[in-house]
UniProtKB/TrEMBL annotation, chain A:
It holds the Pfam family TctA. Keywords: Membrane, Transmembrane, Transmembrane helix. The chain crosses the membrane at residues 20-49, 109-132, 144-163, 169-186, 206-224, 320-343, 355-374, 394-424, 431-450, 470-489. It comes from the Bacteria. It comes from Nocardioides cavernae. This is Tripartite tricarboxylate transporter permease. InterPro entries: DUF112_TM (IPR002823). Residues 20-440 form the DUF112 domain.
Automatic annotation (TrEMBL), chain B:
Residues 1-12 have a biased composition (Polar residues). This is Tripartite tricarboxylate transporter TctB family protein. It comes from the Bacteria. It comes from Nocardioides cavernae. The chain crosses the membrane at residues 24-47, 59-80, 107-131, 143-161. Residues 30-170 form the DUF1468 domain.
Length: 517, 178
């Protein structure tokens, strides 16, 4: 109950007319950028970070929260209306959502996605309020060796377990770790990998890395392969739901939430697995009830995965706030933003800056409400954005990427770095290197080095200190299982998840059947 | 899309047309990894070790450099054994045609021009030129409209940062005008 009191205090500091205005601007900007084709939530947050530069931390947080939820909502709009999932978590939404849109039920699909996201986001954020402080109070007790082990765990999970190809995951991770090395060494103050550039000695801003790899890399990759034929956009009316739509949606919303939150909260990362599980569950339940219109545009197939997606996004705030560990690209960018306000990632985050953390949680709840209030009526307007001609769209992305990288330090050199990182992003897309391990390497690499040196300094250089804590040993055991298990399972038989991951995702019915089987 | 963080999501675009069973361009990536890793490792040897710090500034670069070299070698082996990356699809991406590197080069040129001139021209002019140049590189032929949109965007963003956020973007040659 103490948590609720703190949350109320959080609301107190957030709820001023000025801050609410920032929240509204955040939701609108986030949705605007998120709806634009080719931009997922991580990129939306990265691109819009500079907008918050001049603000007080609390005003900035409430704006982030709006941008974050707006960006996620925008992703489901493109998935439903264009059949183009903006990120891997929207793939399942696109399956039934686009079929519904083609059958003239785009408005209902958008409505069930918006309301489902609202319910899942609210329940998920309330669960964060209860879980994160409890975990954080345990986490502040853990020593440097265990924290080091936790970071190893996060990296291994994201790199080798979640991705399709462990080799490519590790290549991306180590490129990120190399970028993270650039700058002054923590203890001796010598610059590493900075080529005698004073501007590099200052470390590369994570925001520049994120904008370069996500936004510029994407724009360059699209430029190399621009589709010459215009995309087909389905018109949308004002979203509303009939009584039967509601009746069919509330079960999937709640079940999706139940799937999504644990996957986000345990650093298992990503929303692919819970959205997939939610989709199969709803399909099975519908089949048992005898009204199986999956494959023809079933509303359950939109409601469940969308709720799972949002609940898992809320869940990622548990490791982020309690341990300072980001496990998705979006939370990695959020963490970079928090660092900009002097909030150091780590288990002390909640105890060192309680008023900021509670303000952030209150902001998430407010952002969630505003999303629903603003975006249900505005859906037809957002759909129009999908018609922006592609040359101007990507020129605009380049423009805002450059603006963001430049506004941080007002150095032309940052634009040059942005270009280099954009070319790296282009190369990563060409060679199918995943982006998340790289971002994680940039953020966690320096933290890991800091913790390792702390642990070693305490033990006087005795390496065995690294496994001197029981928690650390447990984590290393989990890490080894996580690394070995996929190989062992692959030897035995191809798992359904692997089959799904390997297939190109299309709405082709036969493939869907096969995947979901 | 875009951020397809973990798995390449192929939306509508079918798989790449059955290409060669080896992607020799990957050897370029492998070479890059070896060079970056070796340089990281070598540079670490030039660092001075401090006192009272058992780990020191060298250990991380040593490990990261060495593993990066190793990953480069593993990538060479994988490539020669026929590992082909599945390039990332996306909503505006059509992988059925060969890559159009001319457009990419034009964009890189536009960005380099921005890097070199931004301090002198200021954001309002440089940003507008960036938008116009990029739109043109990407195939837009509505020049008049792009010029108008570009200048509106850059001047509006200059004022937004200046008035709203207190971030003073350089005005460059328009100093005194804005």
């Amino acid at each position: 109950m103490e948590n609720l009191g703190l949350l109320v205090d959080g609301f107190g500091s957030v709820l001023t007319p000025e801050n609410l205005l920032y929240a509204v601007i955040g939701v609108l900007l986030g949705t605007f950028v998120g709806v634009l084709p080719g931009i997922g939530p991580a990129m939306a947050v990265a691109l819009l970070l500079p907008v918050t530069y001049g603000l007080e931390p609390i005003s900035a947080f409430i704006m982030f929260a709006g941008i974050y939820y707006g960006g996620m909502y925008g992703g489901s709009t493109t998935a439903i209306l264009l059949n183009t999932p903006g990120e891997s978590a929207s793939v399942m939404t696109a399956l039934e959502g686009n079929l519904m849109a083609r059958a003239g039920r785009a408005a209902q699909a958008l409505a069930t996605a918006a309301i489902g996201s609202f319910i899942a986001g609210t329940i998920g954020t309330l669960l964060v309020v209860f879980f994160a402080p409890a975990l954080a109070s345990v986490a502040v007790e853990i020593g440097a060796p265990s924290y080091f082990a936790l970071m190893v765990l996060a990296m291994v999970m994201v790199t080798s377990v979640l991705g399709g190809s462990p080799l490519r995951g590790f290549i991306a991770l180590f490129l990120g770790l190399t970028i993270g090395l650039v700058g002054l060494d923590l203890n001796t103050g010598q610059s590493r990998l900075s080529f005698d550039q004073p501007l590099l000695a200052d470390r590369i801003d994570v925001v520049v890395v994120a904008v370069g790899i996500f936004a510029l890399g994407e724009a360059l990759w699209v430029a190399a392969h621009l589709r010459r034929s215009p995309a087909h956009v389905i018109p949308v009316g004002r979203p509303w739901m009939s009584r039967s739509d509601l009746k069919r949606s509330w079960g999937p919303w709640l079940r999706g939430t139940a799937y999504g939150f644990p996957f986000g909260a345990l650093p298992a990362g990503g929303a692919e697995i819970p959205t997939f599980l939610s989709y199969i569950t709803e399909k099975r339940i519908a089949a048992r009830k005898g009204h199986d219109d999956f494959g023809k545009g079933a509303i359950e197939g939109v409601a469940g995965p969308e709720a799972a997606n949002n609940a898992s996004a809320a869940g990622t705030f548990v490791p982020l706030l309690a341990l300072g560990l980001p496990v998705t690209a979006t939370s990695a960018v959020m963490l970079a933003a928090l660092q900009g306000y002097g909030i150091e990632p780590g288990p002390g985050l909640m105890t060192d800056q309680p008023e900021l953390v509670w303000a952030l949680l209150a902001s998430l709840l407010i952002g969630n409400v505003l999303l629903l209030v603003l975006n249900l009526p505005l859906a037809p307007l957002w759909a129009k954005l999908l018609r922006i001609p592609r040359p101007q769209l990507y020129a605009g992305i380049l423009f805002f990427a450059a603006l963001g990288a430049y506004a941080a330090n007002l150095q032309a050199f940052d634009l040059f770095l942005l270009l280099l990182l954009g070319l790296l992003g282009l190369m990563m897309r060409r060679f199918a290197l995943p982006v998340l391990p790289l971002i994680l390497g940039v953020i966690l690499g320096p933290l890991m080095e800091f913790r390792l040196r702390e642990a070693m300094a305490i033990s006087g250089g005795d390496v065995s200190a690294l496994w001197s804590e029981p928690l650390a040993i447990v984590i290393y055991v989990v890490v080894s299982i996580a690394v070995v298990a996929p190989f062992a399972v692959r030897r035995l038989r191809p798992t359904p998840a692997a089959v799904a991951a390997d297939q190109s995702l299309t709405t082709d019915d036969t493939q869907t059947e096969e995947k979901v089987r | 899309m875009s951020t397809s963080l973990d798995t390449p999501t192929t939306a509508e675009s079918p798989r790449e047309t059955p290409g060669p069973d080896r992607d020799l361009a990957q050897l370029g990536l492998a070479a890059l990894l070896v060079v970056v890793g070796a340089y990281t490792f070598w540079e670490a040897t030039t660092l001075r070790v401090g006192f009272g710090d058992p780990v020191g500034p060298r250990v991380f670069p040593y490990v990261i450099g060495a593993v990066t070299v190793l990953l480069g070698i593993l990538l060479v082996i994988a490539t020669l054994r026929g590992d082909v990356p599945q390039a990332e699809g996306g909503e505006d991406v059509d992988l059925r045609h060969p890559a159009d590197w001319t457009t990419v080069l034009k964009l890189v040129g536009v960005l380099l021009f921005t890097v070199l001139t931004i301090t002198f021209l200021g954001w309002a002019v440089s940003g507008a030129l960036l938008f116009i140049g990029s739109a043109w590189s990407l195939g837009s032929r509505t020049l008049v409209r792009d010029v108008i949109v570009g200048f509106v965007l850059s001047v509006a963003s200059w004022y937004f940062f200046h008035e709203g956020l207190g971030v003073i973007l350089p005005a460059g040659i328009l100093d005194g005008v804005l």
